Amino acid sequence: xxFDELRQILELIREHELTEFELEREDLKLRVKKAxxxxxxxxxxxxxxxxxxxxxxxxxxxxxxxxEAAAPAATEETDIELAIVKSPIVGTFYRSPDPTAPSFxxxxxxxxxxxxxxxxxxxxxxxEIDSEFDGEIVKVYVENGQPVQYGERLFAIRRK
Length: 160
Prior knowledge:
Blueprint: H1 3-15, E1 20-24, E2 29-33, E3 56-61, H2 72-75, E4 79-86, E5 91-94, E6 110-111, E7 116-122, E8 125-130, E9 135-140, E10 147-148, E11 153-159
Antiparallel strand pairs: 1-2, 3-4, 4-11, 5-7, 5-10, 6-9, 7-8, 9-11
């Protein structure tokens, strides 16, 4: 692989806002993955855009505005901190690595930071979406096989 090919790959990654890219050839294995901080580009190359924002943490009171008051037992838990995992790219959401495999996570499962939650397919590339937090899966917002947009909610995690 020469410098021009590498530059073209980086341009495609930047243009399509991919968070992860992997290429394997006979004599080469290349893996590019955006982390929490901006990636540093090699010298003589244009800088990569800043990394995607971290998932938003939302504090939800038991009785949210616009809803009926919660039952007295639920009001004891007045603040539940939920981390909302959002889609970093546009693509198709998959809960498992293949149609016959079990889902990566289910509601009620405990997850660790960097654990794979799902896959988003974009342009025939499978992008693993990892958890940014330790916690418990409280909600899955998207159905398997459905298209997702950039910034769309995927999971709610109760942080530990």
